[in-house]
Amino acid sequence: MENSPNTPTMLSVSSSPHRHSGENTAFIMQDVLIALVPAALMSIVYFGWRSALLIGLCTGTCVLTEYICRRIMKRKQTIGDFSAAVTGVLLAFNLPPTLNPIFAVLGSVFAIAVVKQMFGGIGMNFVNPALAARIFLLISFPSHMSKWSLPFFYMSSNATTDVVSTATPLAQIASGKAATSTIDLFIGLHGGCLGETCALALLLGAMYLLLRRVITPHIPLAFIGTVALIALIAGQNPIQHVLSGGVMLGAIFMATDYTTCPVNKTGRVIYGIGCGLITMTIRLFGSLPEGVSYSIVLMNILTPHIETLTQSSPFGSEVKRSGK
Amino acid sequence: MDTSKSNTKKAAEDKDLLLPKKPYRTHGGVHVDHMKNTAETESQELPTPKKVIISMQQHIGAACEPIVKKGDKVTVGQLIADSTSFMCAPIHSGVSGEVTNIGTIIMPNGAEIKTIEIESDGLQTVCPDIEPPVVTNADELYAAVRKSGLVGLGGAGFPVSIKLNFSPEKHVDTLVINGAECEPYLTADYREMMEYPEDIVEGTRFVMETLGLKRAIIGIEGNKPAAIKRLGEIIKERSLNDRMCVLKLGTSYPHGAEKVLIKACTNRAVPVGKIPADAGCVVLNITSVSFIAKYVRTGMPLVSKRITVDGSAINEPKNVIAPIGTMISDIAEFCGGFKQEPKKVLMGGPMMGTALYTLDYPIIKQNNGLIFMGQKEADDVKPSDCIRCGRCVAACPMLLTPVNIQHFVERRDVQALNDLCVMSCMECGCCGFSCPARRPLVQYLRMAKSIVKSGR
Fold it and tell me: How far apart are CA A265 and CA A251, in angstroms?
């Protein structure tokens, strides 16, 4: 029966389902890259060619590192899924605009080789590679990583001096003088990491990600909401806190990294609240002016535990219908 | 109804038994293209095939034993195989002719099963013993349905008599008729609704009244407005609208899954590991109730089946009414043959159907679709690494976590799989459908279930 002449070819046999949504990892990562475009453009407008250089350098180094790692480990090549490119752009967004490119390259190699590939590649890293790399640079080269410059510094007449130093809005809050207006914060006219300053551009990206259903609103809303609430309780301006530093970038693009955030909705809300809590604890009581990176990485580590605690019980497990 | 109950309790119960106006919320689900290409074409009867091969395993449960032997003459509707097992439905011949062989066939799951091969004489002589059954109470209905060989015609193929044979302690009060037909391509149930709407309403009324149930809800997906309208009109004409209604369901997949359908129609949840009767419901497929109405009228057992033939490889997609045991190659020929070489052939719909290894395979009672997929449609993309996006978790109607289950399957961790309640999985395919990394999640879930069952 199996060798009947009527059977035209070998039929392919597989487990159901035999249809697919058509989505794939590369499409999702491409969507994230598209969502990052407005912020990238604004950073180039504000900080000039240095932004473009850092973004390009980080992305290129990340992709190259991933390629080499996969080659050395003799594993299936994964640069085609664009996840390394996303890490590169996000790392660049977390660097000061005037950073020496050497450090950017070093951070990129660390992000991909140590944080991502050593743990098994995409989906296996336990913390966000871009943030881990930023923290690595921050701890290793603190002075280089905290030189901030004002937007349009490259146009000013004394641009010959390498850096026009400024204080970030958070440093201003910490020292008790809120000098940046809310409007300036919203459109990004203040010092900071190159991708985090323009809240407007980041929000555009968030809208795109939500519309394309790449992310769910749970984490960003819980994160930002908690930051605002604690700022309010602490008697500080919640809008200033939300719009300054890395809260927007972190809540929209970093904390929502699939691999390192919980998979269910309740878990995501708890995780977002945790990020907000740690951020504000560091901002209000810590010696550092900013705590977004640390908060997200700490919550990354807690993710498996949050998932265990919020494990949903299956449909029908809480029903008691007896003798009705 | 117990008169000693307090008025408030009675009022609450009556409220619970109201006919729903809108479907209740269900969990998860995905949006799958409907592709109901064959919806508006009249079903066509297949000319009597020369040969049929009737598998002794027509549905979930026990296999039947042949009670005819080589050389026997059989007629249409004649009992040819039966079993004393509870989980079983007898099998009747769909053609008249001669038994040429009692053979075996390898099922898609690898099991070898007995078959009865019948060569048709083309006369389609009807068995003289056939007469309408007398059904006046629930026990007689149960016996008649068992005798008719009816299995759930929606695709899962659970012997219907068992569904009707619930204990009175379960306090079953609602009949839910499954007209969701949420699988892509399939229109066999829809054609039944358009061609025999009176039988559907009559069958529903008959089952409801014979079993002493209080209400019947016919759930139909919103993508079949003509059927919803037509059945609603008939219910009204027959003034059954005080205890029977047609409920327009959302169009997300899987609204036709039993537990999801019960939730959408009655807002009740079937307890984990239990059956619909534990939620006070009996669920029957819409074609099944229509069959019951016809069977009570004529006494002709289940010998043929309407099958949706579709897919990118077939020339003329249509609904075909064919005797049980017709070879798939005969049906493909009747549908104009192939416009391209079929790469994957499915029994059932694309979301839950079984891929066949050969076209030399007979259709069985639970079949409602034959999908011939061409090269492009069948193209399987290799899975990549899980990115933990959580889409499978959001899609699961049973609130499971396929993303974590796959890891425990690889580690064969029975305890962890038990804790994740993998036995609740109904293999609807929502997780695999939505996975961007194309992980074979349903396959993992099936492995998980077998690991839990075998304990290792």
Answer: 15
* Residue-wise pLDDT tens digits, A207-259: 999 999 999 999 999 999 999 999 999 998 899 899 988 999 999 999 999 99
A18–B contact, CB cutoff 8 A:
yes
- The fold adopted by the segment(s) B20-37+132-298 is Rossmann fold (3.40.50)
Measured between CA atoms, how close is A102 to chain B, in angstroms?
A: 30
pLDDT tens, A259-302?
A: 999 999 999 999 999 999 999 999 999 888 788 999 999 999 99
* Nearest alpha-carbon partner for B103 in B51, B145, B144: B51
**Tens digits of residue pLDDT in A42-70:** 999 999 899 999 999 999 999 999 999 99
B439, A17 Cβ separation under 8 angstroms: no
**A306 touching B, CB under 8 A?**
no
Instruction: Sketch the domain layout of chain B as residue ranges.
Output: 20-37+132-298, 51-120, 304-376, 391-454
Tokens of A291: 């705590």
CA R_g for chain B: 22
Question: What pTM value is reported for the model?
Answer: 0.90
Q: Per CATH, the architecture of A25-149+165-309 is what?
A: Orthogonal Bundle (1.10)
Within 10 angstroms of residue B434's Cβ, the number of other Cβ atoms is 26
Size of interface A-B (CB pairs under 8 A): 194
B354 touches chain A (CB under 8 A): yes
CB contact under 8 A, A316 and B269: yes
Q: Which CATH number fits domain B304-376: 3.40.50.720, 3.40.50.1580, 3.10.20.600, 3.90.1150.10?
A: 3.10.20.600
